[in-house]
Amino acid sequence: MNKSVLAKRPVKPERFLSLGFLALIVVGGLLLALPVSAAGGRSIGLRGGLFTATSAVCVTGLSIIDVGAQLSGFGQAVLLILIQVGGMGFMVFATLIMVALGKRITLKERMLLRDSMNQTTLAGMVRLTLAFFLMALVIEIAGALLLMTRLIPCYGAAQGVWMSVFTAISAFCNAGFDLFGGYRSLLDFQGDPVVLFTLAVLIMLGGLGFPVIMECLHLKLRRVSLHTKLVLSITAALLLTGTAAVALLEWRNPLTLDNGMNAWQKLMNSFFQSVTFRTAGFASLDQASLSDSSKLIGSLFMFVGASPASTGGGVKTTTVAILFLVVGSVVRGRERIGAFGREIAADTARRAMTIVMIGLFLVLGITCALSVLERNSGFALIDLFFEATSAFSTTGLSSVGTSALRPVSQWLLMPLIYLGRVGPLTLALALANRMDSSRLNRVHYPEEKVMIG
């Protein structure tokens, strides 16, 4: 093919978005590796900088450094910016900058913005972006103000305000980073309902997705879409099921719930653990002390993750909902897939199956690799599976302590975190050199039966 033709070929949106996140990680990693980003001027190193930047941009929360103790004020500010840009999407911030500078948003940029926010139409994309950003800002400010009522008395005015702002943004972006130090996350706030419920609400709002929040705010102005119905129903089912599972499995565990908590505190922490399994990364319970059954169930919840167009990761709630609907249609002998009086396209079901299968192969493959690399470390297989699932789903929970893994294992987790954030299907489409679909659709082969089941 002529080189001039190749040069003029437009870059796929999937490829542009994937490379954009990668560039942000590299820049952020180099900044965090600078001595000025480290407390005391001692650099955290290139591996520490890149891993922390990957985890921040991909709003994961896994960390091989003690963020509260090892990063300076400048380093913490860089980390917070990476979390905010990673959670909202770099195309959102690029659009905001262009709007602030008075520059015109081109059609190509609107298409990239649409794809980055999982929208289906170009109509009103710039206005929608501004609305999303303002909504996120209001939610984060409200969460920070509530946290200040608890953190200022503990840490003083200046430090309390900064920690409240950092924690609120990290929670809404489902990042899981905190400045409390000692890798303790929220263990010191197990009995504080203000902190736990404030963070739980921030996590849930960030994980619902901006379109769902906007639709709920305008509930009286239009009918609720099928997407919103699926998101709300699956989210509610997962939260209730998760709370019940954690409570039943950990109620008598002296290392988690049964460590002096009363019944109300046990239920509160069970609920928060269920919420944080949904790609949040904050922990009010010691994850290493959870029973193997809780870790397995938690891994399944992390794999599902949050909802599309949200700040969370995972294969997404609607993807799993569609798979259940496919199973239901087969069991009931129906040819078409439907829910709430609406039909779902077969292509959507195929994409859902593809996302889940790619995700499973990635998680199981990395788990096997970790088990080989860490064979002399004494880590149980369930803990390594928990770690791999947490990385892929951009959750940030760890039962082994990511800093305790060998450096080669930490390097291995970085691409998994990245794949989990950009989406396995998005990256596959970005790398694929697909033929013209019109040519493929004209080719039909003879049909033949295959035995299954």
What does it look like?
By secondary structure, the protein is mainly alpha-helical. It contains 20 helices and two strands. A two-stranded antiparallel ribbon has the order 1-2.
Layout of helices and strands, plus pairs?
Elements: H1 3-8, H2 13-33, H3 45-57, H4 67-70, H5 73-88, H6 90-100, H7 107-116, H8 125-155, H9 157-172, H10 193-208, H11 210-217, H12 226-250, H13 263-276, H14 292-304, H15 317-331, E1 337-339, E2 342-344, H16 346-373, H17 381-392, H18 407-422, H19 424-431, H20 437-441
Antiparallel strand pairs: 1-2
Quick structural summary:
With 453 residues, the chain is mainly α. It has helices at residues 3-8, 13-33, 45-57, 67-70, 73-88, 90-100, 107-116, 125-155, 157-172, 193-208, 210-217, 226-250, 263-276, 292-304, 317-331, 346-373, 381-392, 407-422, 424-431, 437-441, and strands at 337-339, 342-344.
Please give the alpha-carbon distance between the first and last residues. 46 Å
Strand order of the largest sheet: 1-2
**What's the main sheet like?**
2 strands, antiparallel
Per DSSP, what share of the residues sits in E-state strands of 2 or more residues? under 5%
